[in-house]
Amino acid sequence: MDLENGTMVKEFILLGLTQSRNIQLLVFVLILIFYLIILPGNFLIILTIRSDPGLTAPLYFFLGNLAFLDASYSFIVAPRMLVDFLSEKKVISYRGCIIQLFFLHFLGGGEGLLLVVMAFDRYIAICRPLHYSTVMNPRACCALLLALWLGGFVHSIIQVALILHLPFCGPNQLDNFFCDVPQVIKLACTDTLVVELLMVFNSGLLTLLCFLGLLSSYAVILCHVHGSASEGKSKALSTCTTHIIIILLMFGPAIFIYTRPFRALPADKVVPFFHTVIFPLMNPVIYTLRNQEVKSSMRRLLSRHVVC
């Protein structure tokens, strides 16, 4: 399919996060430092989980995939944003914009579904422990992983298909630092009400339903843990609390961005900035800092390499 079929616009001009050069420089330095510290940490989590035979439980299998998804997600927006901070003219081609939008929703949708799978894993482990090894066997885990990747792909394809059918004849200035549905739709040379409603349904409604479902499932789990007297109670509470923090970090901004009509608000740049650049790098680190087994394994891995 010709990505530029039916459109006169060949490129989009990104207006960026801010027009202040001083603020741009400050954000550039902060993102670069954050990126260089946290991103290797995500890859270290993946390496630790893959190299330690003691971390073979489904929880760690999904945690490793979360780290991979978040590391991949961080490459969609942040590197180009850093380059644009140093450029006078911030331009992205129409094709490049569509590709960025596709991967943004492909990996973002996959991560949202992964958090649903992780909630299901914790529910079975805590509320149905006798059935855990049967339900969450390696084949089932791989099937769930394949399903969430497929779900993210379908979600993203729907987004892209709706955008490709819109005509763009000008203007071509995107009031943001990356390409996403709300900003791109505003530039279409046609009435976009129906498309906006479809987008809200595909992204916003599904995000909200997943968010409410996840909160409800963890409420059930926490009630079950609170009423039990098992010795693993504190560990279960810590794990569930961590999951809830990640859910709030991911779904909170996504609900703000996608569950309302695409009209400009003062926070329309700040919220996506944290959603696409900061939080994806932090998620696996938050999990790791609250998981004693992964921290211990990571220390052993680092000590072995230091000794060598």
Automatic annotation (TrEMBL):
Q: Does the keyword Ubl conjugation apply?
A: no
Name any one Pfam family assigned in the record.
7tm_4
* Gene Ontology terms for molecular function: G protein-coupled receptor activity; olfactory receptor activity
Has the keyword Methyltransferase been applied to this entry?
A: no
Q: What is its main location?
A: membrane
Q: Which residues form the G-protein coupled receptors family 1 profile domain?
A: 41-287
The UniProt entry, under InterPro entries, shows: GPCR_Rhodpsn, GPCR_Rhodpsn_7TM, Olfact_rcpt, Olfactory_Receptors
Where does this polypeptide localize? Cell membrane; Membrane
**Single GO cellular component annotation?**
plasma membrane
Keywords, in A-Z order = Cell membrane, G-protein coupled receptor, Membrane, Olfaction, Receptor, Sensory transduction, Transducer, Transmembrane, Transmembrane helix
- Family per UniProt? Belongs to the G-protein coupled receptor 1 family.
> What is the purpose of this protein?
Putative odorant or sperm cell receptor.
Question: What's the protein called, per UniProt?
Answer: Olfactory receptor
Query: What organism is listed for this UniProt entry?
Result: Panthera leo
Q: What is the lineage of its organism?
A: Eukaryota, Metazoa, Chordata, Craniata, Vertebrata
